């Protein structure tokens, strides 16, 4: 199925809505592949972005929700939880230059960022 803006979907439909396994490709090059329910990303899925970033994890009603892993194109990897599309709870970040960090997020806001490998780096900004 193609949309007027150039997006397209390949997958299962039930009663005119996306349901089951499917792949949606956005005109900007982003792509979601995974589970659908009631016309929204729901269940396990994978999103690739034009810049090379990748997210694999759980979705609920079209948003990241539950456990997931974000792979950044610069080599960082963030394993954690999301709630209603925002990072929420504890996360583990592996950074190719700065090592491994524990983070704590609340509704998309980074609260703490601690190094697990260096006791002299109690709070570290990754950018």
Characteristic key phrases:
disordered C terminus, 2 domains, 127 residues, ten-stranded antiparallel sheet, 0% helix, 63% strand, mainly beta
Tell me the domain tally: 2
- Shape field: elongated
Low confidence ranges: 118-127
- Please provide the ordered H/E string of secondary-structure elements: EEEEEEEEEE
Ends: how far apart? Answer: 40 Å
Strand order of the largest sheet: 1-2-3-4-5-6-7-8-9-10
Instruction: Give the quaternary arrangement of the chains.
Output: single chain
Q: Bin the strand percentage.
A: over 45%
Rg for CA atoms: 17 Å
Biggest sheet details: 10 strands, antiparallel
**How much is the average pLDDT?**
90
Total count of helical runs of at least 4 residues: 0
Look at the helices and sheets and give the structural class.
mainly beta
| Secondary structure: number of strands | 10
Summed up, what is this model?
Helices cover 0% and strands 63% of the residues. With 127 residues, the protein is an all-beta fold. The chain has 2 domains: 1-60, no CATH class; 74-127, no CATH class.
């Amino acid at each position: 199925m193609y949309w007027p803006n150039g997006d397209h979907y390949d997958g299962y439909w039930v009663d005119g809505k996306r349901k089951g396994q499917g792949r949606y490709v956005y005109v900007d090059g982003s792509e979601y592949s995974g589970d659908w329910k009631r016309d929204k990303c729901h269940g396990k899925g994978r999103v690739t972005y034009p810049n090379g970033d990748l997210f694999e994890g759980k979705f609920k009603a079209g948003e990241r929700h539950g456990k997931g892993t974000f792979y950044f194109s610069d080599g960082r990897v963030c394993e954690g939880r999301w709630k209603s599309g925002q990072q929420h709870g504890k996360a583990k970040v592996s950074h190719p230059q700065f090592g491994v960090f524990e983070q704590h997020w609340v509704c998309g806001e980074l609260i703490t960022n601690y190094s697990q490998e260096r006791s002299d780096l109690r709070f570290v900004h990754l950018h």
